[in-house]
Design a protein that fits this description.
Strand content: under 5%
Number of helices: 3
Largest sheet: none
Shape: elongated
Number of strands: 0
């Protein structure tokens, strides 16, 4: 249930971010519907690529700053 709520919240965030990113451009206000949809589609692609990037970066930071509980496991078993 928590993953569904998280997914829906993330989807709403992406949609709102896309609408915000495309609503403030002067070019968009004078364009046709197809141009708005085209630019909105690519804004959604960019926003959706940010999410995995942030997850990978946070995993990298967590891996760097987390200590290993048993450092002898790194030497290998003989």
């Amino acid at each position: 249930m928590k993953t569904k709520i998280f997914s829906v919240g993330l989807l709403i965030l992406v949609i709102c971010g896309t609408l915000y990113a495309t609503s403030d451009l002067a070019v968009i206000k004078e364009s046709s519907l197809m141009t708005k949809l085209f630019l909105g589609f690519f804004a959604a692609i960019i926003l959706l690529q940010i999410i995995p990037g942030v997850l990978l970066f946070s995993g990298l930071i967590k891996g760097i700053f987390t200590r290993e509980a048993n450092p002898q496991n790194l030497k290998g078993k003989s």
